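Hi U.,

Before I forget, here's the chain from the pilot set. I'm dumping it here mostly so it's searchable later in email.
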Amino acid sequence: MSTKVLGREMYLAGKWIGSEKTIDVLNPQDNALITTVPAATKEEMLFAIEEAKEGAKVAEALPVHMRMSILNRAADYIEHRSEAYAVTISQEGSKTIREARNEVKRCIQTLRLSAEEARRVQGETIPFDQSETGENRVGYYYRFPIGIIGAITPFNDPLNLVAHKVGPAIASGNAIIVKPATVTPLSALLLAKAFDYAGLPPKILSVVTGTGREIGDVLVTHPAIRMISFTGGLETGERIARKAGLKKLSMELGSNSPAIILQDANIEEAARACVSGAFSAAGQNCIGVQRMYVEQEAYESFKEQFIVETAKYRVGDKGLEATDMGPLIHEKEAIRVENWVKEAVAAGANLLIGGERNGPFYSPTVIENVPEHCTIAQEEIFGPVALLYAVDDVEEAINKANNVHYGLQAGVFTKDIDKAFQVIHRLNVGGVMINDSSDYRIDGMPFGGVKGSGLGREGVKYAIQDMTEPKVVSFRLGIK
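Structure:
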């Protein structure tokens, strides 16, 4: 698999800028060098922020029809080069080429959704005469952009999760500075290339490549940044929240998502859905299935079917069409996953399939009866490992599913509508997928979680709400 990828320059306030200091971008499959990108300095991040101050004014004044045109042109640009974008995603990250193509499609949809939602940044009239003091007043509110948004994005969806921040920011008239994951910066730069081609005015968008320790705090703490949109781990999110100061925060911080399988479920369909949900993107998926709670009567049949489906998963070269799962993002992550599994087995868990590591590759792994005190039972594994538990009834399943510090999404498999609604209302999560695994999302829905899974909601319409503020206007009538 080969393509000419964009490298060696970052997108700084509408200009492509190189640097003497660089970061190697490596293919995690074999550690081969793909290219290099600039290692931005604090001064370069400060320059991007100063330029964004002017960019925010330009963005706010940009007519809605122009915002829509730019977003649609950027989507067209990507669509016409979709295979090159997919190859770049797959080269620098963990996704197979088939998974990468799907991400490109979603990115295009995200940008087109952003164009559509740009026309819906609306307000409404306010009946001031609901108060005795307001009988001679009429008015309304409208939404205005907050200014400059700082976006920090992860490696696992290096194109579409950037689009989920950039698209709504442009649609709502803001400037935005993106700090992409250090290991997967090329996809974000390709997104900037699309907006550059589409005619986005300079200074509205910057994609600044570099290390978090060098430029991250500058972006997070600067008073001109009015919102931080972060997707990543809980510990990093907590550090950002402590440092950010008085600004908006939108954070998606991952999960260890549960699936509940009741005895009346279609067991074969549930097993197929949960296998895909557990092992897609090598399990490096914030809504991937990690914990499965199966009613006792269905446990053995579900376990057998789940293992059969897991054994079919083809692990190998992510560039091959037949491959289902590639490597983790780095060998050290595969070693971490390996150690967590070993800890669980040593504590009494039963390894049913998998548990083998080969460099950055870790085989699809299923464990049952993991003690609740084990790391893998409480934390986000972010790797291809799924945990199986038998439960007596739906009540026990709900209680165990809720007994963690995360709450992003959940899957529930049942034909009983009453039990479905029981689970819907009692699970402490941001989304419940009925007869689907937790690993289901469309880019137009509100996406986010509770507890340690984050703050706020992504999804284009809902991100725009966070990126704007209401301004109230009142006319006092009858004044002569």
